[in-house]
TrEMBL record:
GST C-terminal domain span: 83-196
Protein name as annotated: Glutathione S-transferase
GO MF annotations in UniProt: transferase activity
Entry-linked SUPFAM superfamilies: GST C-terminal domain-like, Thioredoxin-like
Superkingdom of source: Bacteria
UniProt entry keywords in alphabetical sequence: Transferase
Lineage: Bacteria, Pseudomonadati, Pseudomonadota, Alphaproteobacteria, Hyphomicrobiales
Residue intervals of the GST N-terminal domain: 1-81
The organism of origin for this protein: Bradyrhizobium erythrophlei
InterPro entries: Glutathione-S-Trfase_C-like, Glutathione-S-Trfase_C_sf, Glutathione_S-Trfase, Glutathione_S-Trfase_N, Thioredoxin-like_sf
Signal peptide interval: none
Length: 196
């Protein structure tokens, strides 16, 4: 399969991490979103939404949206709980990540890291909602090792992508001991180098 992705994107890295964790072979095709390479006619033929990641399988089928991709790739693996309710709780976190986490942490990071905005120019509502997302995770992780119990699942993979880079979006994790512990454990479980 071919993964079309921007290596600066947490959403794209989720797909890479799952493939690496499960030893799934792939070719990584770099797509530079800052150069609008997702807006070319060739890319739009692949994914009409004009977004990365997109995965082209050997049989010609294409799948987009990071959490849908990792859900598909990890089917029948230990990254998805066998228990139906635990799997549904994992899905709950996946949906929450795209609606209540990524729009704040990832957007603030993009604005600071790639647009050069100072933290003082970030939308205060995005910052407030980003901290609310981090607080919810901290509360959950104070009680459980990972987001769905004691084992790493796709919920952890998905939420790790931008949480581990929160500082690049102006978010400080000093008061989030459980969250910092989880980041370290999830990084080690996935074989990732810690973010400094």
């Amino acid at each position: 399969m071919k993964i079309y992705g921007d290596s600066n994107s947490g959403n794209c890295l989720k797909v890479k991490w799952v493939c690496d964790a499960l030893a799934l072979p792939y070719d990584w095709i770099d797509v530079d979103t800052l150069k609008h390479e997702t807006r070319t006619a060739q890319f739009l033929k692949l994914n009409s939404a004009g977004q990365v990641p997109a995965v082209a399988f050997d049989d010609g089928r294409v799948l987009a949206q990071s959490n849908a991709i990792i859900r598909y790739l990890a089917r029948d693996s230990d990254l998805i709980p066998k228990d139906a309710f635990a799997a549904a709780k994992m899905d709950e976190w996946l949906f929450w990540e795209q609606y209540s986490h990524e729009p704040y942490l990832a957007v603030c990071r993009f604005q600071m890291k790639y647009l050069g905005k100072p933290a003082s120019d970030l939308d205060p509502d995005k910052v407030k909602r980003g901290y609310a997302a981090l607080a919810r995770m901290e509360h959950e992780l104070a009680a459980t090792r990972f987001l769905v119990g004691d084992s790493l699942t796709l919920a952890d993979v998905s939420l790790l992508a931008y949480t581990r880079l929160a500082r690049e979006g102006g978010f400080h994790l000093d008061g989030y001991a459980s969250l910092r512990r989880w980041i370290g454990e999830a990084e080690r479980s996935l074989g990732l180098k810690p973010v400094r």
